[in-house]
What does this fold into?
Amino acid sequence: MALSKVITQDKIEIVGDFKAVQVRTKTAVMEDGVELSSGFHRHVVSAGDDYSNESAEVQAICAVVHTDEIVAQYQAHLEESTP
Amino acid sequence: MADVKISELTALTSPSGGEELVVNASGTTKKITITNATSASLPKAGGTMTGVIAGFESTGIDDNATSTAITIDASENVLVGKTTTDFGTEGIVLFHSNDTNKSRLHVTSDSTSGGYFNRLGNDGEAIRLYRQGNLVGGVGVTSAGAYITLGGTGAANTLDDYEEGTWNPVVSGASIAASQILGTYTKIGNRVLFQCYIYGNITSDGTTTAKITGLPFTTGANGLNQAVFYISHNTGVDGESIGGFMPNNNTELIFLNRNPNNVAASWINGSGKEVMVNGTYLTDS
It folds into this structure.
């Protein structure tokens, strides 16, 4: 009977006009390969965010979708949204 | 009676007075005693057959079971894997329409699922629910997961996502130290319900807009779907703030003053500041 904790990014989505990269991290407790329990944690990498500490997969996605143009558009959207 | 040729039958020399079938075997009269011919046979009606039929096989039925596999009880209920309709006993019962259980299916399984429904091919319903013959709902499957339809079968009646989890609220517009921060969320369909707690020593310039970033899902794209949040136990945000809003296409909470109204609020400088936040918003995710 071996217990282990397995952490995976089981869902990565690109959402919205500004290509927000939504990441779901799943933490599962496994016993001999059978999942006993699990929980989710989410974070979003928005255009212009520093993604250097993200996983290699998320970094690769951000590098493609967070173009200079998208970053500029999102920054303008943020400024426009703030009262 | 064992098989014999007609020529091997007992010759009929004179009637015995019992039940005999007379047979002509090439000019010689033979007899078959009816009682002998039928004594080992099962009556056409009534009677009891006992023992084991080995290797039974017929078109449509092939029984290779080594023990009782199907029982049809006196009420014409069909039982598989058990011989009683008791719901607490493991097995399957298909109740007859005349039974008090009215054509119901009972499945009792021990420490495992009582039913598997596997839709092959395209996405769609795996289970349909009817009322008086009218379709009212169901359970479907897609490559992304399962969904249920409630109160109708259209897209607006479809619940295809439910998720609980945590997120990291990040103080923006000030720095925070010695903090205790927790964010949780529940997503039901396209609606995200969230809350967070922030406590710590805040260093603020008193002018920068107070925000919390890091919402678990991006807010919806529609600019008219502006969402709001409310706060309590507020010692961390100025302007008598009672909350703020979340712009579209965003992951930020922006705090607003209550006095003057709808002006961006700022974090309050100091130690032991706290704010409790609760809100909901639409997402396109």
